[in-house]
Write a structure and sequence with these properties.
single chain; about 800 residues; alpha+beta; 6-stranded antiparallel sheet; 5-stranded antiparallel sheet; 28 strands; flat
Length: about 800
């Protein structure tokens, strides 16, 4: 790690750093924002604003970095102090100055650094603004320029902070004005004697959309719209020249996201010295955009309300209870067939009502005036043009200090509504007369529960004639249990509440059958509130209950079937466990025997016992066939018992091929030639099952190939669709034509083979590929050989 030399102006630099009084101070939002902006613009996880004294680098602001300081000898920024501009290290591991730096050797390793010295007005560099990443990279020109500008902004912020500290005493003298300015809800500004701005508070800056520095002098004039700029500046300068108060409403345009043009109202008063000279101005600026908008919206709302009232036919009115002055809305005037704006007297307004209605409206108005009671009356009225209409007159009281001071209300022409209500009542009466012929099941009873009327559908459904029902107690047509429930529960509830709904009842048909129904009823009362009659609607749910019972039976049967399936799954599971035990108990002795034969063959190999050696080899071959047959038989049983479930895992292809070839007889392994046409290393599969399938194909190819001819295994993959293929090719005589239709079925065996394990080899191959969602197929066969293909899908 290379340690850079000290800057030539180190003493002056340290003195200026001390004058800043910034080391070891609390975090400040401005510096935090500058640092965060640097990280965001450069797209790095770390950004630091660091200041370097004699022995350390202290971070005034940091993003993505947990330490508050680092030794100066170990910091990249010591190199940046010596630079005139941006210092950039694209990959620290390739830079001899930093290759052994502790942060470069750490985990994660610092790989990229870019920093800009913070240059003050005297040319000194108290520190740097830098960005760091944990991977090699290079800044764009735009990012380099942005980082340089942010470093300049950091320098300006440090100098502003220094000036602010020097001016603390002056600020103490100005503190009352400052407190007032910062707490007032309005924008406050101050000028010198020439009318140039020397102060603005935060609210002024927010209203005008201009930062404090930009507003100084005549900078505030930049916010004026083109249309108002000339007149506002002329008026302002005229007031300053004449030492007069300034007051004006004008438009300004905010910059950035300032919501466009705003209306402001500015008032300023001159500050005069004891000798009468002008010391400056103090003024306020108020954003009146929303108020002007609200006033305009109020006018529009009133106009809209009038239009809406005209469309809806609703007018308004008010009566001052002290002066008895009555005010009608335009729509109320129209309802009376009068010109809009007409101001009637109270007596005139009451005179439009028909004589029989005047007493009711006079009494309502009097109660409102005396007691503050509201009203809503539907009354007949004759308009100024002699039209007879019905109106809805509504009124209520406005109170002030507990005393009614005004009546206000609404007025609506309800002639059509009144006529509709009258017609509705007539329709109700006709409905009562016609309900007996309705297609619904309906009946009515008196207060004692005797049947008054029934609908034709009611009679049809229960099988009675009308004369058999009218006048009898409704209880006679119910089961004893339902009758008791009606007397004790449903009927009292209906007379009490005025209605009941969906009460379950059993009715007795004329032939003795029972019907399950739901009864809903509405009560009618006399004028003095006594029960008169009840109208009932009957919903026959007999068939619904039957269907529900059938559904419940089906659900019970389904649950029983599910239990049987679970029991069957348990049996299959136990069968699978037994197969695993059987596989171990059968294979272990056979494996031991095979190992013994191999040992014996190895012992005889050097003794010249050729005949014994050949017999051992034949015995070993027969034992290998027996083992293969046992494996296939057990595999077939496991596949049938497993229900199609496999465990697909990412498997190394070379390992699969190696263990498969190792399963073959030793003397046959060298005949297998593997050609890989893909660089793919792994594939998704159940390795044990695919190993069995591939071994069966290779065993068949070796068995039927001529002499010691090779058997070729091709491994291929494709992207569209994503599959892995194994092709096994031999030079045998081909598969007999009569065997082709049932080649992959259980029991299919070649006539020349010795694989007598029930013909399970290719059947197991197909079942394994089916469980993987793939295929096993015969590509071609003939006198020159046979090619078989396994296709294994790789999509998730």
């Amino acid at each position: 790690m290379v340690t850079p030399p000290l800057p030539p102006d180190e003493d002056r630099r340290l003195a200026r750093l001390a004058a800043l009084s910034v080391m070891d101070t609390e975090p400040e939002p401005l510096f935090d924002h500058l640092t965060a902006l640097a990280a965001q613009i450069c797209g790095t996880p770390v950004a630091l604003l660091g200041l370097l004294d004699e022995r350390r680098q202290w971070f005034k602001a940091a993003v993505g970095f947990g330490r508050s300081e680092t030794p100066r000898a170990q910091t990249f920024c010591a190199h940046t102090l010596l630079a005139d501009g941006l210092f950039e290290v694209r990959d620290a591991r390739l830079d001899a100055r930093f290759v052994d730096h502790p942060d470069v050797l750490a985990r994660p390793a610092l790989r990229f650094y870019a920093g800009v010295p913070i240059r003050l007005d005297d040319g000194s560099h108290p520190g740097t603004l830098c960005v760091v990443d944990f991977q090699p990279r290079e800044l764009t020109e735009a990012q380099r320029e942005a980082l340089t500008r942010l470093a300049d902004a950091a320098a300006e912020a440090l100098m502003m902070r220094e000036r602010a500290l020097r001016g603390a005493d002056l600020e103490a003298a100005e503190q009352p004005f400052q407190v007032l300015a910062e707490t007032a809800p309005l924008g406050i500004f101050r000028t010198d004697a020439a009318g140039d701005f020397i102060f603005t508070n935060a609210n002024w800056q927010r209203i005008c959309g201009l930062p404090a520095r930009a507003a100084l002098g005549e900078g505030w004039a930049a916010t004026l719209t083109t249309e108002d700029s000339t007149s506002v500046l002329a008026h302002w300068r005229r007031c300053v020249a004449q030492r007069q108060a300034f007051e004006m409403r004008y438009r300004l345009r905010r910059g950035g996201n300032g919501h466009g043009v705003r209306q402001v109202w500015t008032r300023a008063r001159p500050l005069l010295a004891p000798d009468g000279g002008l010391r400056g101005y103090v003024g306020i600026t108020e954003d009146v955009t929303d108020r002007i908008t609200a006033e305009r919206e109020l006018r529009d709302s009133k106009a809209l309300l009038d239009r809406t009232g005209r469309v809806a036919g609703i007018g308004g009115w008010s009566l001052d209870l002290q002066t008895e002055e009555l005010v009608w809305s335009d729509q109320t005037c129209r309802i009376h067939d009068l010109e809009a704006g007409h101001r009637p007297t109270l007596q005139e307004a009451i005179g439009y009502y028909k004589p029989e209605a005047r007493a009711a409206i006079e009494a309502a108005v009097l109660r409102g005036m005396q007691h503050g009671e509201p009203w809503s009356l539907e009354l007949p009225l004759v308009t100024a043009k002699g039209r007879e209409i019905w109106v809805l007159s509504q009124g209520q009281v406005d109170w002030q200090d507990g005393v009614p001071v005004r009546l206000v209300g609404a007025f609506q022409d309800v002639t059509e509504h009144h006529r509709a209500a009258v017609e509705l009542e007539h329709n109700r009466q006709r409905l009562r007369a016609l309900y007996e012929s309705t297609p619904a099941l309906m009946h009515s009873v008196d207060a004692a529960g005797r049947v008054l009327s029934v609908s034709d559908r009611w009679l049809e459904r229960l099988g009675y004639k009308r004369q058999q029902v009218i006048g009898r107690a409704m209880d006679d047509f119910m089961t004893p249990e339902s009758s008791q429930q009606v007397r004790e529960v449903y009927r009292p509830a209906m007379w009490r509440d005025g209605h009941v709904g969906d009460c379950p009842v059993q009715l007795i048909c004329a032939d003795g059958r029972l019907r399950d129904v739901l009864v809903s009823a509405v009560a009618e009362y006399t004028a003095d509130g006594r029960p008169l009659r009840a109208l009932a609607l009957v919903d026959d749910i007999t068939e619904d209950l039957q269907r529900r019972a059938e559904l419940a039976h089906e659900q019970r049967m389904r649950r029983q079937t599910e239990r049987h399936v679970q029991e069957l799954d348990q049996l299959l599971h136990e069968r699978s466990e037994m197969l695993d035990v059987l596989a171990h108990e059968v294979r272990q002795p056979l494996n031991n025997a095979s190992a013994a034969l191999q040992g014996a063959a190895a012992s005889l190999a050097g003794r010249g016992e050729r005949q014994a050696q050949e017999r051992l080899n034949r015995a070993q071959a027969v034992l290998g066939q027996v083992l293969a047959g046992v494996d296939n038989t057990l595999a077939a049983a496991s596949l049938l018992a497993g229900g199609g479930r496999i465990a697909r895992e990412d498997t190394d292809i070379d390992t699969l091929i190696a263990v498969t070839i190792a399963d073959l007889p030793r003397e046959q392994r060298d005949r297998i030639v593997v050609h890989r046409h893909t660089a793919t290393r792994t594939a998704l599969m159940d390795m044990s099952l695919l190993r069995l399938a591939l071994r069966n194909l290779l065993s068949n190819a070796l068995k039927y190939a001529r002499g010691v001819s090779p058997v070729t295994l091709h491994v291929i993959d494709f992207d569209e669709p994503a599959v892995l293929q194994f092709e096994v090719a031999d030079a045998g005589p081909g598969i007999p034509r009569e065997l082709l239709p049932r080649l992959f079925t259980r029991g299919a065996r070649g006539s020349g083979g010795t694989e007598s394990a029930h013909g399970l080899g290719l059947y197991i191959v197909r079942r394994v590929m089916d469980m993987h969602g793939g295929t096993a197929e015969l590509l071609r066969t003939g006198p020159l050989g046979t090619v078989m293909r396994l296709t294994l899908p790789q999509a998730d």
